[in-house]
Amino acid sequence: MLPKTSAYLPDASYQGKPVYYSYATCGGEDLWTKGHHKEACVNQEHERDCDRLDKCAWNGEKCGGREVMGQCKKKLHGFTWGMASCRCVGIDNQPGTLAVDVGDATPKMVDYPADVGATCQSWDLKRHPDCKKPEGEKPKWCYDQWCYVDPCSCGHTVPPKTSAYLKDGSFQGKPVYYSYATCGSTDQWTSEHHDEACVNQEAEKTCNKLKKCAWTGKECLGKELVDLCHDKPTKSGSWTPMPFAALPFLLAFLA
After folding, report:
1. Residue 55 belongs to what domain range?
2. Minimal CB count within 10 Å: which of 113, 116, 131, 212?
């Protein structure tokens, strides 16, 4: 069964492509699309009806989303979607807000855009309390761009870090990681504002106290980077960048 372009988030995208949903990947039967999503590509029975929708393409027999029909030709710009070896993850251009924890020691919830971290942006500028100071008094890190990334698909030489803003968040079963490096920025925030970041644990003892961290033999990193993203554990030395893995990704928005 073909996935369908989202009716709930028609203007949203994931890595430059429209958001799709699937019941089949969750073991369900799609009883919703036919009666509630008239502009779904799969509901266009004739080529002329299919062609009038920009998001759709006709393969000679049926209508489907352009991406599903093999028309994934859009190039991703690194300044927006992160470097090719470590793409940003998340749904861009979705409406609403998301409460994130910007507190260092004590939790402090602040509303950020719902698509925070989906692309390379200076997300903290004008949102983080420290970044609302007058020009000239804002910390330098307010202007730095960052995004969320999949640790197992990130091959940048600078390892990503587990999120402080979304401590309980996950992406495909893994904790949420962030990266400044993939957006071409230097991380000037983590060392002073994320005490529990694995990279800030200088000794094996303090590293092992944090369940999300693992000691490589030389440094402390997120567990996924040390063990879980590899076929075999690599605790003998420093983190080694992995080749970019195009992991299957399908966002399911169920009615």
Report:
1. 4-65
2. 212
